[in-house]
Design brief:
Layout: H1 5-9, H2 25-33, H3 47-57, E1 64-68, E2 71-75, E3 93-99, H4 104-115, E4 118-121, E5 124-127, E6 130-134, H5 140-151, E7 156-160, H6 164-174, E8 180-184, H7 189-199, E9 203-205, H8 210-222, E10 228-231, H9 236-252, E11 262-265, H10 271-283, E12 288-291, H11 296-309, E13 323-326, E14 335-339, H12 342-355, E15 359-364, H13 371-376, H14 382-391, H15 394-397, E16 402-405, H16 413-420, E17 423-426, H17 434-442
Parallel strand pairs: 3-6, 3-12, 6-7, 7-8, 8-9, 9-10, 10-11, 11-12, 14-15, 16-17
Antiparallel strand pairs: 1-2, 4-5, 13-15
Length: about 450
Amino acid sequence: MGLTGLDIFKLLPKTNCKKCGQPTCLAFAMMLAQKKIELDKCPDITEEAKEKLAGAAAPPIRLVDIGADEKKLSIGQETQLFRHDEKFHHPCGVAVTLSDDLDEGALKERIDTIKNLKFTRVGTDIAVDMIAVMNKSGKADAFAKAAKAAGETGLLLLLSSENAAAMKAAVAEVGAQRPLLHVATAGNVDDMAKVAKDAKCPLAVKAGSLEEIAELAEKVKAAGVENIVIDLSADLKTALQSLTKTRRAALKKTFRALGHPPVTFVQDPDPFQQVLEAATFVLKYSGIVVVDVTEPYQIIPILTARMNIYTDPQKPIQVECKLYAVGDVNENSPVMFTTNFSLTYFSVESDVEASRVPTYILAVDTEGTSVLTAYSGDKLNEKVVHKAMQNVKLEEVVKHRKLIIPGHVAVMSGKLEEETGWEILVGPKESAVIPTYLKQIWT
């Protein structure tokens, strides 16, 4: 196990100089113990203490960056086995394969398909991150050509080949984009490590067992490649066991040889099973998941699983608190309010759109909580709603004085009417009933 905050504090200068950005040396020690600050932020630490603290300062799972400049994917450096203990910090990458044995037309078509795998969910953009270029042809020129074409998309790259000569040719085309090179094995480790070191690219290693993977990772590290990814691809059961074992070994035992983010290639040929396995690997605990499917209905569940598991459970997704116009609204359009919790707001917005009745929706600030949760916690009351109405100058937007409120908080209608002077209409309890309400009750 790593050093505690107090252990680290004993090795610090104890000057409380604040040069590190923390108020005291003890605060700095606690942050360092939690891997939330770098050791070099302390300018006055002695070389002896620095040497002793180097291990404590290093994260149990190394952070690996794929890509160059601002366009990059950071994986690893996780500190928890379970999200509810804190949160997961670095969302895993989702990659789709591109075979270099496709003819020119098919290659372009698949690249275009992958490039367009982007969607919007509850106001958040989600998309595939990477193209995994596969050297199925076994030829260096075909691999380099496919890599160059994939690199022109702006997506991050994973180059997969056991042929060091083919890898070198592909890196010559796209090395500046800092792709992940896959894969070093016992048979090609020296050549692959040289290609990765010369190009300053991260390198994935693969072997038959976790012990062999650990040995191979150490050999690659000794060759001068620091940024290492471990390939744990296998059938679902075996891969899940390996992902869990390596995570535990790194976090609980501080076993550095396995303290590298993993990549998993989904191997089942059935597309529905691929989606299931990919989502499983996203949740536990892959750094990159590689799939062969390209249909939107297959990709969306994987991206949704990633979005859900990497969302901070203590910080709900929120929309901006303002007045939204849905449809071609005018001064006579109905006005309803809901909370600024994204899932609640977009459910209401979707059903308002389905009604085809142009409507204003006022998103009230409830710190990202749902209607009933906000009401029970007194984050949603007549004063909060009135303030939201005043902030958007609602009385200047519509000429009527009618406000539709969620049916679940019908109990606040009386106080809200007294507070605002508006006529309060109690809407449906369920969002799905909104179209019927707007068509039959409002009109």
